[in-house]
């Protein structure tokens, strides 16, 4: 039995790798994709999602545009990392499918409510606006979702501020809602994703796979590596978002521990911080887990295998 996942994302270079991994792994079935304003504006990341889906032969996956801005705050984007298009340096094919006419939040609700209870895992790799809105608009999804796996936050590390990660900091109110609903939540944060570095060895291994999908991925990594080194000083950038997908494929690749997590909404210096309480033992009703350790070689082997499979199936 494959695991059915709905991707909620803001492509985004690392979101693109997450899409590739989800599409190319036989353990997962991507049943929907919703976009959210984050790395770039909603229009740009939605265009990117359609182009990537075309390149990766995901044309049968419904894709819907979701929320353009956070619940309360002004939008913020990350052109210093992802460029003005959201996928700087990458030439995408013209979309071979049309956008689903539903709002992204409605796509999430419809997918969960028409599937068996526990049948859908939500994988969020952007701000959590769509997921929070879905839980508020149709509260019954909370007891029907198998798990929410999100790339965001951090136990001890921030990137947009010293203690806050971009996705959570962009819409901390939405993150607060998602963490406080009683569904299972796994936070794949910066402490974990900073272990997934796109080193020269990793790029050489992926680049050895022949074909046009590989060429797209190589362009993607060239741009991402250059931007990340310039903006953040990483010679080999962390590839955040596919770590959340890897956890869905094989949880043994991403070690997690049960830890209560809350989101700081009002701190002058700590706004958007995910506060993970490592005091032991966790309460009996703890429904949140945080990722701690990545099996790096197995993670990149999954990405390589997915690239081979997607390339073989490319039109």
UniProtKB/TrEMBL annotation:
A single Gene Ontology molecular function, please?
purine nucleosidase activity
Q: Would the keyword DNA damage be found if you checked this record's keyword annotation?
A: no
Extract the SUPFAM superfamilies matched here: Nucleoside hydrolase
Claim: Hydrolase is one of the keywords in the record: yes
Record's keyword terms, sorted: Glycosidase, Hydrolase
The residues covered by the Inosine/uridine-preferring nucleoside hydrolase domain are 5-301
Q: Which domain of life is it from?
A: Bacteria
Q: Which CDD domains match?
A: nuc_hydro_IU_UC_XIUA
Question: Which processes are annotated in GO (biological process)?
Answer: purine nucleoside catabolic process
* One Pfam family hit: IU_nuc_hydro
According to the UniProt record, one GO cellular component term is: cytosol
Q: Supply the name of the protein.
A: Purine nucleosidase
User: What is the species listed in this Swiss-Prot or TrEMBL entry?
Assistant: Propionibacterium cyclohexanicum
The organism that produces this protein has a lineage beginning with: Bacteria, Bacillati, Actinomycetota, Actinomycetes, Propionibacteriales
